[in-house]
Signal transduction histidine kinase
Amino acid sequence: MRITMFRKLMAGEFGQVRAEMIARDHVLSSLGGRTADDALEAGIGAKEVWVAVCDAFEVPENRR
């Protein structure tokens, strides 16, 4: 998954403003205590980051 697709999925699920806030501020223990933005910058794949966000926010399987 490309980062652009990750951003699109985030905005679709959470709304543009909240998606940006979550990616910037919400620390995910499953990503080693990183935010989504930090994880992407560290080279963790966008799909892995998306799954971690979905797990943390209990996004239903049909919207992942």
Remarks:
- The mean pLDDT is 98.
